[in-house]
Write a structure and sequence with these properties.
Acyl-CoA Binding Protein, Ubiquitin-like (UB roll), 28% helix, PH-like_dom_sf, 464 residues, PH-domain like, FERM_N, 4-stranded antiparallel β-sheet, FERM_domain
Length: 464
Amino acid sequence: MFLFTVKMSIVPVDQSVMELGTCQPGVAEKYLRNAVVEYPDSSSDTFRIHKNADGQVLFDLAADYVKMDKQDKRYFSLVYIDKRTKKPRFLNNERAVAKQSDIRNWKFTFTFKFFPQEPSVLSLKSRKFLVEQCRSDIYSRKIPADTETQAQLASYIAQAELGDYKPSDTYGHYVRNGRFASSVDYDFVNAVQEYHLRRIGQKEHEAYMFYLNYCKNLPLYGIHCYETKDHDNGIPIEMGVGARGLLTYIHGKGVTHLFEWKYIDKISFRRKFFCMKFLNVLPKQDQDLEGSTIVFKLSSSSVAERFYKLAVEHHGFFRLLKTAPKAKGKRSFFRWATERFRSHKRHDSDTVVVPDERKYLNETIRTIGLEETMDDANDTMNISLIDRTQGSDQGSVYSLETEMAKLAIAEQEEVEPEEELNVGMENKEEEVDHDAALIRAILDATMLDPDVVVERVEMRESVC
């Protein structure tokens, strides 16, 4: 008789990977997928997360791996390339990564989403990331800068990386390959050299701070732009959103208009149209905008929606001191839909105030009633009624009270007309009360008793 002894060990995940902090803990090997994250300094790391993990899991792993300061994490986000449009998009941390990015090619960029108005609020590591972010944006012309400006900025980086200037045969090679400007010639190298000579004695962190203080005053620093056109002459216009508000930019002319948050009463969108409604009382230089509404037509409805969301997030990050008071009593279709677009990260009254950031805006803080941005059924543009999330194939789920008495009250309230938007739509067709029509359709289709409450309605979009 033979006796065999078998020694078995179970190792679900490589222990070395776990120790490095690049793997989501508690997940079996068969469910893990690789995701590559590139940082602003061009370094990259591969992380392993559950195939159905939310974006927050990957973001936390990427931030913790580089020992990102907890307060600095809020400025960053992950970016991926949209499979359909081939353009960069911010990863939604509250949705599954697999539902946003192609699972066969999980490549992301760890980048700034909210650019600080005063770089000194960041830790030293985050400042270095911001330097590299600005360096990349200037090189790619995302942040426009003339040759003289590019040479001055390059001299600060040269001082930080090389120290005090010393004549060298390789200096020209360093400047040409330093990604300082899209076009580098002999004159540019000489200009960088001359400015570098003026930086003698500056330490690395000092040179970086001088660099960032220069960058923060550039026209499109921290601005996320989307393309549109002038309605009258068809001239291409960049519509941007940033810390101070919304702006328009024309190549060759610079920033043509800046619409600050404190003067905007309401923002909204429907289909391709993005709308801004101004306060009834404005400074003298902006009195022609008092109570009026400006409408921009973007390239597509999805772009208009993304721009709207980005505007809401920037307003919430830089200006929203507290949550707008919740509506009491009746809750309509439109109010529920609007709340889906409000930022969820920093609305707690204990954590939302960031004095070190807001004090640099040098303006009186005012909270925009964002929860009212899409409530008005009779707005001239018939502002967006249904929340269509990124990449979603279905609409939102609503809770509707279908008592006939409440329906009648809702119909009376929604009939009240509002001020017309000045967009040349005098012959616009009479608007339909979609809220009431949907409720009637539900009752007719299901033959429900009027006193029955419909708890859930699911709407799906057909894909052509």
